[in-house]
């Protein structure tokens, strides 16, 4: 018989797939790390498992405790899944820009979800950061993983995702391209790859226009899970060799192309990262191997990025996006 002991054993060891269509005219090899194949559907399963492991080991999280975290969804799913397996309760706090689909996924695992306004300052008592701080003090046995400062977040990528990439590319990887949210992915993988390659691997961050990583003021953008309006502890500012600024329009157009041209149904931050990877690929040598991280799948964005009316309403698409019978028949 061939099976795993529990769903948690399915985390990590995700495959790399070559991008063949959106890379037209590019000589370098562009490989995508398909993180939506993790059991919770995103790259965040990895950090959830490691943060909980380390909190159990340190005694910060005790049997029957409650996990409280401000999250845009994916970290919540990872935490909710691990918590379900280990008998913890979960309360998640997220901004109102997060799709209802994503919030319902959290509830499906048995978690509680508190929704806060996006358009307020992080210091405002209504902000999702502040609300989660308050809940920590009010709930007995509460533990806040804090993916923004918890060293287990980048550590999971340093010890797991980074070595996976080095092994999968047989040490031939020349560039890593990743979106930056908490900074855990780029910091952990980037640090490992820099060390193992003697500084040769180039680390490239992709960032939404308006976010601080690419010099913005933190003004709002619509792509979810990436970009920040503050500098998290888990982002190592010395690591990235380059940051590529990507607009929402570019991110969403590429996200849709990945589904239609590569058969990869992914989220907006994946589209954004691929735009960054193609910017790198244009200047790359033919034998360069560029790896781009696809953090999550597209199912959570069906009513937004993959919805023509939503795209049109926000000015990302000309016309209705629908094809009439007349157009098809000529
Ligand atoms: N994409 C999505 C959809 C995410 O949820 C996140 C996590 N916030 C990221 C990208 C960025 O990853 P990291 O937090 O490791 O920088």
UniProtKB/TrEMBL annotation:
First-tier enzyme category under EC: lyase
EC number(s) per entry: 4.2.1.22
Methyltransferase is among the record's keywords: no
GO CC terms in record: cytoplasm
Gene Ontology molecular function, alphabetical: cystathionine beta-synthase activity; transferase activity, transferring alkyl or aryl (other than methyl) groups
Keyword tags: CBS domain, Lyase, Pyridoxal phosphate
Associated pathway: Amino-acid biosynthesis; L-cysteine biosynthesis; L-cysteine from L-homocysteine and L-serine: step 1/2
Cofactor entry: pyridoxal 5'-phosphate
Family of this protein: Belongs to the cysteine synthase/cystathionine beta-synthase family.
Name by which UniProt lists this protein: Cystathionine beta-synthase
Organism: Glycomyces luteolus
Span within the parent record: 1 to 330 of 454
């Amino acid at each position: 018989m061939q099976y795993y002991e529990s769903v948690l054993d399915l985390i990590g060891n995700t495959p790399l797939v070559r991008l063949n269509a959106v890379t037209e005219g590019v000589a370098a090899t562009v490989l995508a790390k398909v993180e939506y194949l993790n059991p919770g559907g995103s790259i965040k399963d990895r950090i959830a498992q490691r943060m909980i492991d380390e909190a159990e080991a340190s005694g910060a999280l005790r049997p029957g405790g409650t996990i409280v975290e401000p999250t845009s969804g994916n970290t919540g799913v990872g935490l909710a899944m691990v918590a379900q397996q280990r008998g913890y309760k979960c309360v998640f706090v997220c901004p109102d820009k997060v799709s209802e689909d994503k919030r319902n996924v959290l509830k499906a695992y048995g978690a509680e979800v508190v929704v806060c306004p996006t358009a307020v300052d992080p210091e405002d008592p209504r902000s999702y950061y502040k609300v989660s701080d308050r809940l920590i003090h009010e709930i007995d046995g509460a533990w806040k993983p804090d993916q923004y400062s918890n060293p287990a977040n980048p550590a999971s990528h340093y010890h797991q995702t980074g070595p996976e990439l080095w092994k999968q590319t047989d040490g031939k990887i020349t560039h890593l391209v990743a979106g930056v949210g908490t900074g855990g992915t780029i910091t952990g993988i980037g640090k490992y790859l820099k060390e193992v390659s003697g500084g040769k691997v180039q680390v490239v961050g992709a960032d939404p226009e308006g976010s601080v990583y690419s010099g913005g003021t933190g003004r709002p953008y619509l792509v979810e899970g990436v970009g920040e309006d503050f500098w998290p502890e888990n982002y190592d500012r010395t690591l990235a060799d380059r940051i590529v600024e990507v607009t929402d329009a570019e991110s969403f157009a590429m996200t849709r192309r990945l589904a239609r041209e590569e058969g990869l149904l992914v989220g907006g931050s994946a589209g954004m990262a691929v735009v960054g990877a193609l910017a790198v690929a244009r200047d790359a040598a033919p034998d360069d191997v560029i790896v781009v991280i696809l953090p999550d799948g597209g199912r959570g964005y069906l009513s937004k990025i993959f919805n023509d009316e939503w795209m049109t309403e926000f000015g990302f698409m000309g016309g209705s996006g629908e094809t009439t019978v007349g157009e098809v028949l000529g």
